[in-house]
Amino acid sequence: MQVSTAPLTNPVPGQYWQWRGQKIYYVHAGNSQSQRPPLLLVHGFGASTDHWRKNISGLYQDFEVFAIDLLGFGRSAKPKLQYSGDLWRDQLHDFISEIIGRQAIVAGNSLGGYASLSVAAQYPDSVAGVVLLNSAGPFSETQATAEPEALQSQIQPPKQPSPLQKILGSSVKWIFKQSFSRFVIFQYVRQRWVIRRTLEKVYLDKTAITDQLVEEIARPAYDTGAFDVFVSVFSSPQGEKVDVLLQRLTCPLLLLWGEADPWMKARERSQKFHQYYPQLTEYFLRAGHCPHDEIPDQVNQLLRDWVISISE
């Protein structure tokens, strides 16, 4: 197994905000720019503000940059409640209103992309533009799944399964509904070697998978309440479908696709985004599921140029 010896990238120190009686962790860097909206960066499932450290350091000189840990993830509180896209949408809206204080560009990866699209579509006064990096979320014409892509890759059989695999796949879903089995699965997927193996599946450049990255993903999974969050994410009802959100969207949209992402078919999803929001801007990149972390310089430049272009 290849272990990267890449140098550490120190995350920017953060602070806490009280939201609905819970501590929410966020990072703030750079100064307010009168001609440019601030940026709000939103992580994916199992990640945190740490996952944006290369982007914060690369963008804060040109923009005021915020990154936030969604409730239930990272250094934010992990209370026992029903987690959903609607919850995180409201969290982002209130954060923009109370902390940022003006319209922001919201950029999200994977699950964070879905939350970003939700707040942009349903609270348009809060968002000046939205950037989606390999964004999650079902379209109406596709069969919805409640499981995050990462866990699906660990416990479900491959696509186009054989009859035996179909039976096993149904068994996995049944097993996951049993409380003890959920605990066993949780203990498994949070182990560092499993996290590293998952990252190796979804990063094209394996040298970007550092010990630091694995630790940043593993650490919050050992916090009090992490298991309850894990269970809730799998059992909560899904939010609005992506096509419905796109039909309500009124702000500029930038799509950045890591084309080597095995969890989602970028070209296929791209066509659906174009169908419902044809005026979008889009780039396909040589990267996996997390292009912002894997090729940060390229992502930072594309994001910088696009924000400046829509701000003029």
Keywords:
alpha/beta; 8 strands; 13 helices; single chain; 312 residues
- Helix share, percent: 40-55%
Number of continuous helical runs: 13
Mean pLDDT across the residues is: 87
Radius of gyration: 18 Å
Content of β-strand: 5-15%
Shape: globular
Biggest sheet, spatial arrangement of strands: 1-2-4-3-5-6-7-8
Number of strands: 8
Structural class: alpha/beta
In N-to-C order, the SSE pattern is EEEHEHEHEHHHHHHHEHEHH
Main sheet specs:
8 strands, mixed
Unreliable stretches covering 5 or more consecutive residues: 1-8, 152-160
Ends apart, CA distance between termini = 48 Å
Short structural summary:
With 312 residues, this protein is of the alpha/beta class.
Can you characterise this structure?
This protein is an alpha/beta fold. Helices cover 43% and strands 15% of the residues. It has helices at 53-59, 85-100, 111-122, 149-155, 163-176, 179-189, 192-202, 211-218, 226-235, 242-248, 266-276, 291-294, 296-311, and strands spanning 14-19, 22-29, 39-42, 65-68, 104-109, 127-133, 253-258, 281-285. An 8-stranded mixed sheet has the order 1-2-4-3-5-6-7-8, sandwiched between helices. β3, α1 and β4 (65-68) form a beta-alpha-beta unit. The longest helix is centred in the N-terminal third of the chain and has 16 residues, at 85-100. It is globular, with a radius of gyration of 18 Å. The protein starts with 13 loop residues before the first strand and ends with a helix.
